[in-house]
Amino acid sequence: MSNPSDSAELLTAVLKPLLEDFQEWFQRSLDLLESKPISFLSPEQQTHLTHRVKTALAEAQTAQMLLQATDGQVGVEASQVLTWHSLVAECWAVARRLRQENAG
Predict the structure, then answer these.
(1) What is the pTM of this model?
(2) CA geometry: angle at 58 spanning 56 and 74, to 5°?
(3) Domain extents for the chain?
(4) Model confidence pLDDT, tens digit, residues 44-68
């Protein structure tokens, strides 16, 4: 049976790089969304997506700080990870479409 210290180490080993990845992708998405108007998004859609990305970035940063401050005793709900993953996928789709339009 594992002890709490082993569980915290495993959680940190898995969650730390995941949180770093989410932060990187949210920041890259934010840079794109704030750089210029995106022709296939209405201004309201772009503003709403930007707001969602900013919120998710702040949440991921907070989760990482809590993970560090508690030596791996704090995790993230799987449902939250799925929400972040969906948002990243949505941002990737926007970036992909933008690249296609700029290439064409």
Answers:
(1) 0.90
(2) 95
(3) 4-103
(4) 999 999 999 999 999 999 999 999 9
